[in-house]
Amino acid sequence: MTTSALHTTDVRVRRLAIPRSLVGLALLLPALAFLVVFLVLPSLILLGYSVLTQNQTGDIGLPLTVGSYERLIFSPAYRRVVMTTLRVAFFTALFTSLLAYPLAMVIAYGRPLASRITMILVVAPLVVSVIVRTYGWQLVLGNSNTGVLNWILGAMGAGPTPVKVLYTEWAIVIASVHVFLPLMVLPLSASLSRINPSRNEAARMLGAPAWRAFLRITLPLSVPGLIAGLTIVFSLTAASYVTGNRGLMLGVLLEQQINTAFDWPMAAAIASVMVAIALFANVGVGWLAERRAAQRLLRSGAK
Question: Distance between CA 166 and CA 27 in Å, rounded?
Fold first, then answer.
């Protein structure tokens, strides 16, 4: 055997001797390093700032305190903003899921032309800036008679008094549903496309109406896409800034604490609470879905 052949064999042996787990870890290191540097470390620094004290000169340091969290939880003004944020995020996720299912079903089960057109209509708003869409809703929901909604109501003779919708919670919900609807439709349509259509056809042939087939077959099997959409929409709505106008949302309150009050510990506490809300939303929705799936398996096994 020649020297080159021996060298090639030795290299192959050494390559085979490397455990696959180490190869996988080496492939994950760049992504893990990116997450640690740009996510974990900033979050820890933010958490550290939230428990420090800021003196009258603006310097931040010891002693440690939880005063910012106490103000955020027990102060009526701050607590009202937190509850408004949670309420807006909840209704946005709820209405977005109700509107997303018909669109996702057309994309997954509709004819090719209808599916393509629906997908284009759903994705098209993503190419428009959120700021532009938000100002568009301000024109539509304007509180004066020049607002599109009030102009239509006036033309229909609904009443002389303008409807006061702008700068309310429902205005934020409407704009947030429009902004985040594609982020619910896309994972739902991907989940629905993996469901075998013959299951719904079998249920319909056995006499089940369309709504029962949807509740017993389509909805349970599309839960993974629904969970992904709910967590994305809820988290992004709770952390939104543009659509949360006039201090109704935590994002606006955070900006005010930094640029107006210059209270960095309070701003860090608000940001930490926003991160905690997103984490609890992801964990909570996943836990509820797993618990429901386990209950369904137990009931099916009992039968």
Answer: 50
Beta-ladder partners of 60: 54
d(CA 103, CA 234): 19
- pLDDT tens, position by position, 244-273: 555 578 888 888 888 887 888 888 888 888
Q: Cα(268)–Cα(45) distance, rounded to whole angstroms?
A: 9
Q: What is the CB-side half-sphere exposure of residue 247 using CA atoms within 13 A?
A: 7
Tell me how crowded residue 294 is: count the other CB atoms within 10 A of its CB: 10
Rounded CA separation 173/79 (Å): 19
Cα separation, 13 vs 74, in Å, equals: 66
CA distance readout (Å), 197 to 51, 66, 118: 54, 55, 19
Distance CA 238, CA 90 (A): 9
The Cα 46–Cα 27 span in angstroms is: 29
The domain ranges of the chain are 23-65, 73-302
Phi then psi for residue 56, to 5 deg, are -70, -25
Helix then strand then coil, % of the chain, to nearest 5: 75, 0, 20
CATH H superfamily, domain 73-302: MetI-like (1.10.3720.10)
Convert the pLDDT of each residue in 103-115 to its tens digit. 999 998 888 898 9
Helices 76-109 and 264-302, packing angle to 10 deg:
50
pTM: 0.80
What is the β-pairing status of strands 53-54 and 60-61? antiparallel
